[in-house]
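Reading a protein record of the kind used here takes little practice once its layout is understood. The reader may check this reading against the record printed directly beneath this paragraph.
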Amino acid sequence: MTADLVTVAIQADDPISLAGVTSQLRTQPGLRLLPNPVSDSDVESEKPDVVVLVVDKVDEPARRQMRFIKRSQRARCLLVPSGLDERALVEAAECGVTGIVRRSDATVHKLISAVLKVARGGGVLPEDLVSQLMGTVGRLQSEVLGPRGLHAGGLSEREVEVLRLAAQGLETPEIADKLGYSERTIKSAVTAVVTRLHLRNRTHAVAYALESGLI
């Protein structure tokens, strides 16, 4: 992505949808449309910043397209499906999609806004499905993870408590004394979080827990 223009390629299940989305985006300032995404062998072609993928539903052909975009185009994918439910949303996320706008909601303004947000690394999701997902995460925490002493972020109760106290400014000896563990156990808990989540250090682990809403 250049400082001024976002390069966009459009893929669609049918020529009418392709023509419609192309006409919506072709003349918009800040965007430059490219031909349809190329194949693996077409290495000389310019790669887009964002691929707008218009599909009827999230089925296996659509998933193959999404995986191809992630693998070969190295572009961010904005999915525009006719139908979408919670399961399809999860499948799209697993295939690397970072933005979704339903066809029924895909006005010119919403499409442009979504393309620009996705190009900058942001995410775009239908609000109603976000609420459903939050409910699913809550049920997962209370019914599955909680009884096993885990959190949705992959941290145990002990690890969350250690990071919570670290965020309050306590040092390792103070945390150990407060929780009734040895200093070695506290250090091991922090090291386990840093290693498992591929973080840099204790400070990064505390920041991760705060940003994830775990503490």
